[in-house]
Specification:
The complex is a heterodimer of chains A (331) and B (374).
Chain A lengths: L12 H18 L3 E7 L4 H7 L7 E7 L5 E4 L6 H7 L4 E4 L3 H12 L4 E4 L6 H10 L5 E4 L4 H4 L4 H23 L4 H14 L4 E10 L2 E10 L2 E9 L3 H13 L6 H8 L3 E6 L24 E8 L2 E10 L2 E4 L3 H5 L1
Parallel strand pairs in A: 1-5, 3-4, 5-6
Antiparallel strand pairs in A: 1-2, 2-3, 7-8, 8-9, 10-11, 11-12, 12-13
Helix pairs in contact in A: 4-5, 7-8, 9-10
Chain B lengths: L2 H18 L3 E7 L4 H7 L7 E7 L5 E4 L1 H10 L4 E4 L6 H7 L8 E5 L6 H11 L4 E4 L1 H9 L3 H23 L7 H14 L4 E9 L19 E10 L2 E2 L2 E7 L4 H19 L7 H14 L15 E3 L22 E4 L3 E3 L3 E3 L3 E6 L2 E4 L8 E3 L2
Parallel strand pairs in B: 1-5, 3-4, 5-6, 10-17
Antiparallel strand pairs in B: 1-2, 2-3, 7-8, 8-9, 8-10, 11-12, 12-15, 13-14, 15-16
The chains are: A alpha+beta (331), B alpha+beta (374).
Chain lengths: 331, 374
């Protein structure tokens, strides 16, 4: 749950202004009067990327018009609008229990022309049907992966946050390693370290392997980015070896298949930082098998006989720099 | 949980299917609404989506992403656990058609959240002879009444909730940030075995208008810290709403607490099996109205006067005008949380089990305005 620190955009406001301007250009290029982006408490990173808005509960739609400021349309009560204004770059916030009608009224203000639904396949089907029914004379266009593709190679703001997220992950795993007692005590130490360092969300999965060994997988959201790592306390030679072999293959131009082959006889998962909040489950089908580009940030997790090893890496032509391995980050 | 618990739940769902004329229910579990699948499979999910099919007759089947396969199988309630391909739903369609023909009327819980891609695959694969309809209300109605095994889990979660509140109070001191308070609370909850937590917080004086995620704001002496703390343990959520003053409470804060305590106690006094949520909300709001604060019970200042708890953290809303009947063994939190000019937003609430002649508390935290002098 997103119950950790939510900070205002502050000095980063120009970054969001630039991202929104790029989105407006996409809207104009598509010939639409606006793009609509759906988000909910579980999956709202695209909206956060454009506005620094944290949807901490329920669902909503971000409207980015071809010209002018964006608007957030949601069922959430207007009582939370002051907080949303304080913590995001949004000024235009609208609330109604009838979300489709709210969207239709907003679009009416923009005049005639098609509206683009970003990643429509993942919108609730009922909401799409309601929007179409409420805007019978307006064509809808598909805009696929229009925001995520701009996040693949993080800009300076996101890269700085990813480095911080990596430090938090490394620190939290170190705290778990140092903690004594039951598994729950290790998880408590991990949560305390991560939340106390400003993590917004913490996803942790632990499983005991017997003989006191413990596999821990940790994914942390800091600001609007995510980093992930996995460690096995008490023996993970094959998983560690697989991760090291995979890391050697993590260079710009390498494909997921090449990386998996390099890792050897282990199970390997490669998830882009953009997709970590939902473990890659919403990744577009066209993205599967795509070769890595320089500057991207990916999380690699290796599993072998129950043991896990993993880190989040910044990819360059020269190789992969781990963001979640404390010593190397410091170096 | 036991297999007899599973059979009890499934029999209730199937009886509701009979009444609604459904041939089966497909429980859809997106990342933020997993409660129906949890209820039918007793499994803790991690994936972004999963489905479970419970036919009116025959075996149930679950469809999961790889990350959840072992958890659903290990829970032991559903023997038929299959892979979920969200782009095609082949396994789901195969199971739905396995009786020789697809169900004529299929209920979908959380149909309102079913994505375009899944709805299209389902409708195209089943054809026009299958009518799809929402079963969200049907499932939430069934989940409202808890079994003894569910209540045992919620009582356990109540004890963890009490402890989480104690951890928050113990961490109070001038200079600590709101998000650091959350870290202290979270660590205690996790140490005690909580699997998740939803938490809203607000600190400051009478300018505070509502509850939000934590900020970088540092506490000052005289601040009132309010929290809705909602841990999840073994799939069940409980909640505590309390306010604590860092230092000695001022007159407005005390007067505010008295108002909220009276309203909460009025709501609890109205509570027993057979009353409606309207009855409870009205009892709370009448206290505000009698003291001239009726305007602060409206949507401009507040959302609900409490709500149901269980496999979801925000079940039946307690509001005036809603005539949902609260049955024996429903679990609700009564919280008259709202803003007033007395001391800003104030929260106070306890979760209880509805009984024939009243209620049973799930918490043991004192119902007082806490004052903590660090």
């Amino acid at each position: 749950m997103k119950r950790g620190l939510v900070a205002a955009a502050g000095e980063s406001a120009p970054v969001y202004a630039a991202r929104l301007e790029r989105m407006r250009a996409r809207v104009r290029e598509a010939g639409a009067v606006a793009a609509l982006v759906y988000g909910d408490v579980y999956r709202s990173d695209d909206i956060a990327h454009l506005t620094n808005l944290c949807i901490y509960w329920n669902e909503g739609v971000l409207a980015v018009p071809a010209e002018g400021p964006p608007a957030f349309l949601a069922k959430l009560s207007a009582r939370v609008h002051p907080w949303m204004r304080r913590t995001s770059v949004l000024e235009d916030l609208r609330a109604s229990q009838k979300l489709a009608q709210l969207i239709a009224s907003y679009l009416d203000e923009l005049g005639a022309g098609p509206v683009a639904l970003v990643d429509e396949d993942w919108w609730p089907a009922d909401l799409v049907a309601d929007v179409r029914a409420a805007t019978p004379d307006r064509a809808t266009l598909a805009l696929v992966d229009a925001i995520r593709e701009g996040r693949l190679v993080p800009d300076e703001r996101d890269l700085a946050d990813l480095r911080r997220a990596g430090e938090i992950v490394a620190g939290a795993l170190a705290a778990a390693k140092d903690a004594e007692g039951a598994v729950t005590e290790r998880i408590a130490a991990l949560e305390f370290a991560a939340r106390g360092a400003g993590a917004r969300d913490v996803l942790v999965h632990a499983h005991s392997l017997g003989d006191g060994a413990l596999a821990l997988e940790l994914t942390v959201q800091y600001a609007n980015v995510w980093a992930s790592a996995a460690r096995t306390f008490g023996g993970s030679e094959s998983a560690d070896a697989g991760l090291q072999a995979a890391r050697a293959a993590l260079v710009a131009g390498s494909s997921p298949l090449q990386i998996a082959r390099a890792a050897g006889e282990v199970e390997l998962a490669l998830v882009h930082h953009c997709d970590l909040g939902s473990a890659g489950d919403y990744r577009p089908a066209t993205d599967v098998g795509r070769s890595l580009a320089g500057g991207e940030v990916v999380a690699v997790t290796v599993r072998s006989d129950g043991a896990v090893a993993g880190d989040t890496f910044h990819i360059s032509a020269a190789g992969a720099l781990p963001l979640t391995a404390a010593a190397e980050v410091t170096a | 949980m036991t297999l007899s618990e599973r059979d009890w739940r499934w029999s209730r769902v199937r009886a509701a299917m009979d009444e609604a004329g459904l041939d089966g229910i497909l429980a859809y579990a997106p990342g933020w609404r997993r409660e129906d699948l949890r209820y039918l499979a007793d499994a803790q999910l991690r994936g972004s989506f999963a489905l479970l099919y419970l036919p009116r007759e025959g075996e149930a089947a679950a469809f999961t992403l790889p990350i959840d396969r072992d958890a659903v199988a290990a829970a032991g309630w559903v023997a038929d656990v299959r892979a979920l391909d969200p782009f095609g739903l082949e396994e789901v369609l195969d199971r739905l058609r396995s009786a020789g023909k697809p169900p004529a009327r299929l209920g979908i819980s959380h149909a309102e959240l079913l994505p375009v891609a899944l709805r299209r695959a389902l409708q195209d694969g089943l054809g026009p002879s299958t009518a799809l309809q929402s079963a969200t209300g049907l499932m939430s109605g069934i989940r409202m009444v808890k079994s003894d095994e569910e209540l045992a889990r919620m009582r356990h979660c109540g004890r963890i909730t009490d402890s989480g509140w104690e951890a928050l109070v113990a961490a109070l001191r001038p200079g600590v940030t709101e998000y650091e308070l959350v870290a202290h609370t979270e660590a205690r909850l996790k140490a005690m075995g909580a699997t998740d937590n939803f938490m809203l917080i607000a600190s400051g004086g009478d300018e505070v208008r509502g509850m939000t995620p934590p900020s970088e704001r540092r506490l000052r002496r005289g601040d009132m810290v309010r929290t809705e703390l909602t841990p999840q343990c073994d799939g069940y959520w409980t909640q505590i709403c309390r306010s604590v003053v860092l230092g000695r409470a001022n007159e407005g804060q005390r007067e505010s607490f008295e108002l909220f305590c009276e309203a909460m106690e009025a709501g609890l006094a109205a509570l027993r099996a057979g009353v409606t949520v309207h009855d409870v909300a009205k009892a709370e709001n009448d206290v505000f109205r009698a003291r001239g604060f009726g305007d602060y019970c409206t949507a401009k200042f507040t959302r609900v006067r409490g709500h149901g708890l269980g496999a979801h953290l925000d079940e039946v809303p307690i509001v005036e005008g809603v005539e949902t009947v609260l049955e024996r063994n429903a679990v609700v939190i009564v919280h008259p949380n709202t803003y007033t000019p007395l001391a800003g937003y104030h929260v106070l609430g306890d979760p209880v089990v509805v009984t024939d002649d009243g209620w049973e508390p799930l918490l043991h935290t004192p119902r007082v305005l806490f004052e903590f002098d660090a």
